[in-house]
Design goal:
The chain is of the alpha+beta class. Helices cover 50% and strands 15% of the residues. The chain contains two helices and three strands.
């Protein structure tokens, strides 16, 4: 009968490694939760149309404010204004999302355990 060999630290009832891994995952999760809460409070601002439209969103991806300079409000071209607003909001949301993803990657260092992170 042939025995399958597992890499060192796997199987064989070595619960110390499993407990250490669980503690490491818990620590990473706590750091990620703290960073996420901090980033949720941060504000991100982006502009469009040469600062004609300015959008500010929170790290929790909620629009906080939209500022529109009166000179870009043209009743004959509402579509252009909508495009500027959409562009500014999307850029602010993108900045918030990218910073959060970068921060989480730095904390986790690529450590990934499905169901934990």
């Amino acid at each position: 009968m042939m025995k399958a060999r597992l890499p060192q630290g796997y199987g064989g009832g070595n619960s110390a490694n499993i407990q250490q891994l669980a503690r490491q995952a818990q620590k990473i999760q706590e750091e990620m939760d703290a960073a996420s809460a901090e980033l949720d409070k941060k504000l991100y601002t982006a502009t469009a149309g040469g600062d004609a439209v300015k959008a500010t969103v929170s790290g929790s991806l909620e629009v906080q404010s939209i500022e529109i300079k009166p000179e870009v409000v043209d009743p004959e071209d509402v579509e252009m204004l909508a495009d500027l607003v959409r562009g500014a909001v999307n850029e602010a949301l993108r900045a918030a999302s990218e910073e959060k993803a970068d921060k989480m990657e730095k904390i986790s260092g690529g450590f990934n355990m499905p169901g934990i992170l």
